[in-house]
Structure formats: structure tokens, C-alpha cells
């Protein structure tokens, strides 16, 4: 469905309609780009060749096509998981080494293509070259946890579950507001999601903050999701300007409160640091 995009120089734009923060501020460019998407195109020649071959060649080429498509899908997901890993100061390694499996499947798929030509030597060469070149092009998955050496694993697991559930609410909010067909509100929801994710990072860095933030990550975010779903249904039917204004005001209140809570958590962490520094100074003073 076509969407209307507004901006500073669009007809009817006013200063009040513009977001206070550019929607791409603080964003890091994803490595999932042309190279990865091109992997989904490469298997199609083998699909075409499959229907020009004898039955064994048909089966091998179809298997090659399916294997390479699966490899491309795993590679794309592996890069996304690595981006999420790199974005956080404290993070677990991906549970499934998707890029490693993608390299192996790329080699296997090209090996099947070599077998389809009737050559075991070509199959072996293609298998090794495919796996090695894929690994050189896209790298390997993170193989160890990051920044978790002194963190209670039980507490970090609790935080991970809470953040995963909160991310679901944000995804559902974005899906719901997309149904409303209002680009400005979509940008506003994205900005609210960025504010919430700052709280995620703060809680991940100090899992002790989860108790103080649980109501925000659970009750308040669930309420924001429900309000977004109801607004999207109403706005799609009636285009009521008052409902839109009320929802925009709600987003402003939520954004301000989540930002204030995150700042409070950071101040509490700073207070803990000051206490630790003071204790160390007292101990050093007694040792002199």
C-alpha cells in the first residue's frame, strides 16, 4: 500500500509537525545490504538448469537451489544477530551460529552443483571454495559472551526475558500504527521505541535495575501497546482528529516518563559508583 511521506519541504508542512529528533539520529547502518540480498538471487540459475537436465540432474539442482536459499536466509539472520550483539555493551553470543551454518550450506550447495555436472572433483573443489569464500566475505558468528564476566547469570537471564517480552510489545506497536496509515505517528512511535531501548541498555548493563524498571517494561509498555492497537482501529475507520491528538499526547507523556525513569536509573548507578569510590578511599586511608 502506498504511503505519503512528509518532510520539511513537503506541502502543508509546519514546524510543529516535524519531529524534535531526526529519526535516524543514533542509528547504526545495518550490514544486511546488497551483498546479503544478492545471495537470494544466486540460486535461481540452478533452478532453471534443473528443468533442463535428466532426473538425477533435476534432483541435484533442486537440492542445490534449496540449500543455497537456506544458506542465504541463515546468513542474513546471522548478520542481524551480530548487529544486535555489537550494539550492546553486555550481550550473550548468538545461540545458533547462523553464519557458520550458512558457510557450510553454501559449500554443500555448490558441491551439489558440481555433482550435477557429474564430477566428484568439481564437487569437492566447489564445496571447499564456497565455504571458505563465504566465511571470508561475511565472517563468523560471535563465539563468546561480551561484558558478562562479573554479572550474575541468573539476573542476566531475568533481564533477557524481560527485554525480549518488551521488544514484542514494541514490534506490535509498530505493526498496529502502520495500519493507521499516518507516517508522522509512525515516526513518533519509532522515536518512543528508541527511548524505551535506552532503558533496555541501562537495565542490561546493571541487572539490579530490573526491579525498579519492571513496571515500565511490563505494565506501562503493555498499556501503550493496547492503546496503539485501539487507536489504529479507530483512526482507520473514522480519522477522528481528537483521537489522534489524544494518542499523540499519550506518546509524549510515555516518552517523557520513560526517559525520566532511565535517567533515574543512571543516577542510581552513579550513586552506587560514588559509594564504592568512597569506601575504597577510606580503606586506602587506613592502610597508610
TrEMBL record:
InterPro entries (alphabetical): ChloroindolylP_hydrolase
Coiled coil: 156-183
Transmembrane spans: 32-51, 57-75, 96-115, 121-140
One Pfam family in the UniProt entry: Halogen_Hydrol
Keywords of this entry: Coiled coil, Membrane, Transmembrane, Transmembrane helix
UniProt-recorded name of the protein: 5-bromo-4-chloroindolyl phosphate hydrolysis family protein
Organism, as annotated: Meridianimarinicoccus marinus
Amino acid at each position: 500500500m502506498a504511503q505519503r511521506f512528509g518532510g520539511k519541504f513537503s506541502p502543508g508542512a509546519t514546524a510543529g509537525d516535524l519531529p524534535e529528533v531526526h529519526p535516524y539520529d543514533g542509528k547504526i547502518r545495518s550490514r544486511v545490504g546488497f551483498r546479503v540480498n544478492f545471495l537470494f538471487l544466486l540460486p535461481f540459475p540452478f533452478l532453471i538448469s534443473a528443468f533442463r537436465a535428466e532426473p538425477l540432474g533435476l534432483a541435484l539442482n533442486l537440492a542445490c537451489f534449496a540449500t543455497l536459499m537456506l544458506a542465504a536466509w541463515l546468513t542474513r539472520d546471522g548478520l542481524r544477530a551480530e548487529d544486535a550483539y555489537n550494539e550492546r555493551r553486555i550481550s550473550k553470543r548468538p545461540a545458533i551460529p547462523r553464519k557458520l551454518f550458512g558457510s557450510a550450506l553454501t559449500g554443500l550447495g555448490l558441491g551439489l552443483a558440481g555433482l550435477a555436472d557429474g564430477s566428484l572433483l568439481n564437487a569437492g573443489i566447489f564445496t571447499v571454495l564456497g565455504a571458505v569464500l563465504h566465511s571470508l566475505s561475511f565472517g563468523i558468528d560471535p563465539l563468546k559472551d561480551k561484558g558478562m564476566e562479573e554479572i550474575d547469570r541468573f539476573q542476566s537471564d531475568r533481564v533477557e526475558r524481560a527485554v525480549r517480552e518488551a521488544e514484542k510489545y514494541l514490534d506490535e506497536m509498530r505493526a498496529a500504527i502502520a495500519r493507521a496509515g499516518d507516517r508522522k505517528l509512525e515516526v513518533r512511535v519509532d522515536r518512543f521505541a528508541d527511548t524505551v531501548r535506552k532503558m533496555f541498555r541501562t537495565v542490561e548493563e546493571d541487572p539490579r535495575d530490573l526491579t525498579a524498571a519492571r513496571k515500565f517494561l511490563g505494565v506501562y509498555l503493555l498499556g501503550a501497546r493496547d492503546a496503539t492497537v485501539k487507536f489504529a482501529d479507530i483512526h482507520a475507520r473514522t480519522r477522528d482528529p481528537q483521537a489522534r491528538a489524544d494518542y499523540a499526547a499519550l506518546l509524549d507523556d510515555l516518552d517523557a516518563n520513560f526517559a525520566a525513569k532511565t535517567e533515574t536509573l543512571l543516577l542510581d548507578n552513579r550513586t552506587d559508583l560514588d559509594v564504592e569510590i568512597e569506601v575504597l578511599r577510606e580503606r586506602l586511608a587506613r592502610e597508610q
